[in-house]
Amino acid sequence: MISFKKTIxxxxxxxxxxxxxxxxxxxxxxxxxWVEHYEKLxxxxxxxxxxxxxxxxxxxxxxxxxxxxxxxFTLIQTSLLAWLVGFVLMWVVLGNxxxxxxxLLIAAVPxxxxxxxxxxxxxxxxxx
Length: 128
Fold this sequence. Notes:
This protein has 5 helices and no strands.
């Protein structure tokens, strides 16, 4: 049987951390970069409630991936591998589609590294 304290709780708390971190970074700190870039492309930056729900799902899936990765790697290795899988691959795709405002990476890279690290830290602390 799945242990709530060692499985569900770490994933849930990591999901909450990831969601809050994403919201603060993309809605409070960097939204102007997104909006301006999308306007230059003739698009409207998607910020409807359904987009927030999808990001909530992404946060949960990211937390589950970190939980799985953490079973095989150290905290630092887990953080870096999760960051690579969760962010770098997403940025490659967004850049390929032409919808990534590259100048926001100056802030997004360190903030996303912290996000991945603290999510992994939460999981490491609570699952042991």
